[in-house]
Write a structure and sequence with these properties.
By secondary structure, this protein is of the alpha/beta class. It has 14 helices and 22 strands. The strands form five sheets. Strands 1, 2, 3, 4, 5, 6 and 17 form a seven-stranded mixed sheet that branches. Strands 8-15-9-10-11 form a five-stranded parallel sheet. The structure holds flavin-adenine dinucleotide and 1,4-dihydronicotinamide adenine dinucleotide.
């Protein structure tokens, strides 16, 4: 019987990154994956395919809206949907094969099949029972269901079906104005669908800084997305070609129906632990179905760890990766650590939206004394040159110490710019530290520096 130091269950970003670190630290490692390909939700039906479609549809938008102004004349491209899906699938393939290569390179045994845990120290795949000192559960998440809404992945779809539609719908209703709804909603809006987003709350993207929420919704509305806010979806009715979405407006309980060719259900995801046998093992779970772990990512059963979407915290690939690294280090006797206060979030629409740390709302709740430095991309030469003057950088800093507490960016390359602030926060930097750092001209990052300057004596180009 093979004898491992660590067996990891699930080859998503949490699992495969953890496996690599385990191997680097000299642990004999295996990874078990039930899907045909490695990479988990993120590479197969999440981050990567959605970004490919966001990129392709953004290119179309640029051709239709901005090429003429730059003197690039000629016929606008038309959409070959089959080819666009082939490009998306090719992108997935390149990435999942890349993970396979990394497993081989690091001498990690890849075991294909669905794993169960008969007892601590054992992982079963099919008829084979493997012995191991440690187990890391990285089994990820799946779309949450909505009462009254039956998903068929053709007319009423989750994100998985929305990445593989037979054709571009004329009308799409998106249930939920969260990250998935807005990213995939923007893809189809740019490809010509009439997109209506039905959201339970009164603001989009729950948990984000309220000022950003408002600006973001305005920008998306300008791009053609329609929003029905404060609306609780009651049920859907679908036939082979269309679906009706029934919803109630929370302000007056009035009932409404909206019809669509495709309904995207994007109302959150839930941990996936089916078939692992956690009940029998007595592993403690939260009321939301997450595996409970301690500061070392170990469950209440010694030698069984859990990371990523299956535990508490934001359901993000990079959060899963960081936990994967840290759990591997803990198992190897090192001091793996994740700074949960500095995990960036990015929405890859156009413009992108990115955030890290506190929002004005959380700071008010905590009664903190803070200041705001804000700078609009309209004052950034590079952004204006590429039709990206919409949006702003907002830095929140402690009023007394000047220490950076959070940042919110809506604008070009926001998802990359945010990391400058993340690094600053890791080092406990002040807004002045950022403001005193020379930034190359002309770059979008100058807007970050200007926002930092605005926390002190003032931005220059405002
Ligand atoms: P997963 O990636 O879900 O991987 C878990 C793996 O475990 C799966 O492959 C599953 O088959 C396998 N598994 C489960 N049970 C077993 C078992 N018993 N035996 C064997 N294998 C098993 N996050 C971002 O940070 N950026 C993004 O841009 C982004 N975009 C997204 C877009 C969409 C449409 C979706 C749905 C999600 C997106 N996410 C994004 C979220 C991201 O995909 C997840 O946070 C991330 O994949 C979580 O990683 P994980 O390793 O915890 O789990
Ligand atoms: P989400 O939690 O981001 O948003 C769900 C939205 O649905 C919320 O606004 C909620 O109020 C709304 N809602 C819930 N019930 C409703 C109802 N009955 N009627 C109308 N609206 C309702 O969840 P989403 O978008 O499904 O994404 C799941 C996870 O995937 C997120 O946690 C996110 O972290 C991750 N993800 C990350 C991405 C990124 O980092 N760029 C991209 C896509 C997904």
């Amino acid at each position: 019987m093979a004898n491992y130091d660590v067996i990891i269950i699930g080859a998503g970003p949490g699992g495969y990154v953890s496996a690599i670190r385990c191997a680097q630290l000299g642990l004999k490692t295996a990874i078990v994956e039930g899907r045909d390909t490695l990479g988990g939700t993120c590479l197969n039906v999440g981050c990567i395919p959605s970004k490919a479609l966001l990129h392709a549809s953004h290119m179309l938008h640029e051709a239709e809206h901005n090429f003429g102004a730059m003197g690039l004349k000629g016929k606008s491209p038309s959409v070959d949907w089959k080819q666009m899906l082939a490009y998306k699938n090719d992108t997935i393939g390149q990435n999942t094969k890349g993970v396979e290569f990394l497993m081989k390179k690091n001498k990690i045994d890849v075991i294909k099949g669905w794993a169960t845990i008969p007892a601590a120290g054992q992982v079963q795949v099919g008829d084979d029972v493997l012995a191991t000192k440690n187990i890391i559960i990285a089994s990820g998440s799946e779309p949450a269901s909505l009462p009254g809404v039956e998903v068929d992945e053709k007319i009423v779809v989750t994100s998985t079906g929305a990445l593989e539609l037979g054709k571009i719908p004329k009308k799409m209703v998106v249930i939920g104005a969260g990250v998935i709804g807005l990213e995939l909603g923007s893809v189809y809006a740019r490809l010509g669908s009439e997109v209506t987003v039905v959201e339970f709350l009164d603001a989009i993207t729950p948990g984000m800084d309220a000022e950003v929420q408002r600006s973001f919704q305005k920008l998306l509305t300008k791009q053609g997305l329609k929003f029905i806010m404060g609306a609780a979806v009651q049920k859907t009715e679908a036939n082979k070609t269309k679906a009706k979405v029934h919803y109630k407006l929370r302000k007056d309980d009035s009932e409404h129906v909206i019809e669509a060719d495709t309904v995207l259900v994007a109302t959150g995801r839930k941990p996936f632990t089916n078939g692992l046998g956690l009940d029998t093992l007595g592993i403690e779970m939260s009321p939301r179905g997450q595996i409970k772990v301690g500061a070392d990512w170990q469950t209440n059963v010694a030698g069984i760890y859990a990371i990523g979407d299956v535990i508490d915290g934001p359901m993000l690939a990079h959060k899963a990766e960081d936990e994967g690294l840290a759990a591997a280090e803990q198992i190897a006797g090192k001091h793996g650590h994740v700074n949960y206060g500095v995990i960036p979030g990015v929405i890859y629409t156009h413009p992108e939206v990115a955030n890290v740390g506190e929002t004005e709302e959380t700071l008010k709740e905590q009664g903190r004394n803070y200041k705001v430095g804000k700078f609009s991309f309209m004052g950034n030469g590079r952004a204006k040159a590429v039709f990206a003057g919409e949006g702003f950088v907002k830095i929140l800093a402690d009023k007394d110490t000047d220490r950076i507490l959070g940042a919110h960016i809506i604008g070009p390359a926001a998802g990359d710019l945010i990391h400058e602030v993340c690094v600053a926060m890791e080092f406990g930097a002040s807004a002045e530290d950022l403001a005193m750092t020379c930034h190359a001209h002309p770059t979008y990052s100058e807007a970050v520096r200007e926002a930092a300057l605005a926390c002190g004596d003032g931005a220059i180009h405002a």
